[in-house]
Amino acid sequence: GVQLLNTDDILYLETRDRLLHYHTAADTWSVRGSLQKAEKELAPYHFAKCNQCYLVNLRYVRAVQNDMVQVGEDRLEISRRQRAAFLTAVASYIGGVL
């Protein structure tokens, strides 16, 4: 079947076991797909990559501490490679919202 998700409902995307997992507050939806393609499609909706496995909806970032970001109730690792770009995206998003 087909499940339509509003981008505002997606907390983050995770790639694992050759599947793309869409995490929402209510459930997790798994589909075949690439994080790279999803990143391009979701860029206009304030999603940013915190490492090679996660694409985070900046709307749901609750805290950034050391090498971890809290998204909703989950804590995700921020890679050294993505750290600067991710923190810039978070700061830019917060600056635009406030």
Q: Can you describe this structure?
A:
The protein has 98 residues and is an alpha+beta fold. The chain is 27% helix and 40% strand. Strands 3-2-1-5-4 form a five-stranded antiparallel beta sheet. Strands 6-7-8 form a three-stranded antiparallel beta sheet, with no helix packed on it. A hairpin with a 2-residue loop joins strand 1 (10-16) and strand 2 (19-24). The protein is globular, with a radius of gyration of 13 Å. The termini are far apart. The relative contact order is 0.17.
User: Strand tally, please?
Assistant: 8
Which whole number gives the mean pLDDT? Answer: 94
Question: Helical region count?
Answer: 2
Strand content: 35-45%
Silhouette: globular
In short:
With 98 residues, the chain is an alpha+beta fold.
Strands, helices and their partners?
Layout: E1 10-16, E2 19-24, E3 28-31, H1 35-42, E4 47-51, E5 54-57, E6 61-65, E7 68-71, E8 74-77, H2 80-97
Antiparallel strand pairs: 1-2, 1-5, 2-3, 4-5, 6-7, 7-8
Descriptive terms for the model:
8 strands; globular; single chain; 2 helices; 98 residues; three-stranded antiparallel beta sheet
